[in-house]
Design the sequence.
């Protein structure tokens, strides 16, 4: 009976996503059905309470990251960067810089669909077509998601807080596809803008973009789960512009400082907060999730205040209140959806674990593609790698395989969850909300399925090789 309720709940969730185009409505139906189907109401309290705690942490991070950006944007902090992009002779270079490097940097700092939401209108303002402005930021938002939002998909989604075997496998599964991604972006750009790419001429630059990203990404990932995407986006951008952009278009060193010092300030405050607060938690009685005192979302807010003080901004309180209202107006719907999904996930974890383990046990030779596709599907439905990992991670962690290591399987699930962001309907809707142009969701998904298919095929091949030769 419980399995039947779970299946109907998922069908309702999919109806909300595909037919009604309202993820929150599907999530509300699924959550309500599971609650009504519980035999013992007392068993609802802990999962729902944990769902509220997890949502509060995620909501604080999303609020802080978006408020920080809004404070910078209101002060026209990115004006010089806009001028820099407009001076480029190659629009393909603009695509790589904005979608691949800046998108990865913002994903590493904020995540949860925010990078594509910020980059899409900027691309539109620079003269790209609406469909290009939507598809390319979403397609590029793949590799970086594995360590997005300061490692949130790993820390909250899978309970992994430091580098180890699982993180190493994640780096290996993503590095080769990451080298391919600039070529994929160039291909999508050629199709959506209907322009021809001179592949022999551009291949060196595109391969260079991949290498400039992958090297700092891989090295940083060996030491921390919080900063690989942010550091790869930032360092990779500087390397790429310095090496592959014509000298006459290369900005001075002061440009990089003026553009990025608020984020460097944030990272400095974050490291300080982690050093001082790491290990301190608020503990509840029973099985409720502990709340760490170290909250990156609060650091974002504090960094924004420090930025305004540095700028000697007048009417500080009024300005913060205005931007806070603007931020809340943009994020309250996604956070409400996240709340419904997290509570749903917490309630169905035991049943879902049983279903997944049964499926994997009955089809052991198909474990690699099943887990990879499950990750993509989880992110596609929930709109978040963190939510996908929360939904499916426990079933993988408790699945015993004689031939496949659990860290590798988790890395494969995690990679699928990251890549699924490119076709997540929630992310597509969020990006479309800031473009306000008639671009059909089916067209966006069909283009980005190319990215997802190529990426996951490479990742699964790497997983097979790791199993064979480990």
Sequence:
């Amino acid at each position: 009976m419980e399995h039947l309720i779970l299946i109907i709940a998922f069908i309702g969730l999919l109806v909300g996503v595909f037919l009604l185009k309202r993820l929150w409505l599907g999530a509300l139906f699924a959550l309500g059905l599971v609650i009504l189907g519980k035999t013992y109401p007392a068993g609802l309290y802990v999962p729902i309470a944990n769902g509220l705690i997890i949502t509060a942490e995620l909501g604080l991070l999303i609020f802080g990251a978006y408020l920080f950006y809004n404070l910078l944007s209101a002060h026209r902090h990115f004006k010089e960067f806009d001028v820099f992009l407009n001076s480029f002779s190659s629009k393909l270079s603009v695509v790589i810089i904005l979608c691949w490097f800046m998108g990865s940097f913002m994903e590493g700092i904020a995540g949860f669909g925010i990078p594509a939401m910020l980059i899409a209108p900027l691309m539109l303002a620079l003269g790209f077509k609406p469909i290009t402005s939507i598809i390319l930021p979403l397609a590029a938002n793949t590799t970086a998601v594995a360590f997005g939002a300061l490692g949130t998909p790993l820390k909250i989604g899978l309970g992994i807080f430091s580098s180890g075997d699982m993180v190493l496998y994640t780096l290996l599964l993503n590095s080769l596809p990451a080298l391919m991604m600039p070529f994929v972006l160039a291909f999508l750009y050629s199709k959506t803008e209907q322009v021809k790419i001179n592949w022999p001429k551009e291949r060196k630059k595109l391969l260079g973009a991949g290498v400039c990203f992958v090297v700092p990404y891989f090295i940083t990932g060996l030491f921390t789960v919080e900063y690989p995407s942010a550091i790869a986006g930032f360092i990779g951008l500087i390397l790429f512009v310095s090496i592959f952009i014509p000298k006459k278009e290369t900005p001075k060193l002061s440009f990089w400082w003026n553009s990025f010092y608020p984020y460097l300030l944030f990272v400095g405050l974050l490291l300080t907060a982690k050093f001082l607060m790491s290990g301190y938690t608020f503990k509840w009685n029973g099985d409720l999730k502990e709340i760490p005192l170290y909250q990156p979302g609060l650091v974002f807010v504090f960094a924004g205040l420090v930025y305004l003080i540095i700028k000697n901004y007048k009417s500080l309180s009024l300005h913060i209140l205005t931007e806070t209202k603007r931020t809340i107006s943009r994020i309250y719907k996604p956070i409400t959806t996240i709340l419904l999904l997290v509570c749903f996930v917490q309630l169905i974890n035991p049943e879902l674990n049983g279903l997944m383990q049964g499926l994997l046990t009955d089809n052991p030779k198909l474990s690699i593609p099943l887990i990879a596709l499950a990750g993509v599907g989880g992110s596609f439905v929930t709109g978040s790698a963190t939510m996908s990992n929360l939904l499916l991670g426990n079933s993988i962690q408790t699945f015993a395989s004689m031939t496949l290591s659990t860290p590798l399987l988790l890395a494969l699930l995690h990679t699928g969850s990251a890549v699924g962001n490119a076709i997540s309907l929630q992310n597509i809707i969020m990006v479309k909300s800031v473009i306000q142009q008639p671009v059909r969701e089916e067209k966006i998904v069909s283009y980005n399925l190319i990215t997802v298919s190529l990426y996951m095929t490479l990742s699964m091949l790497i997983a097979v090789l790791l199993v064979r030769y480990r």
In short: The mean pLDDT is 87. Residues 1-39 form one domain. Strands lie at 281-282, 291-292.
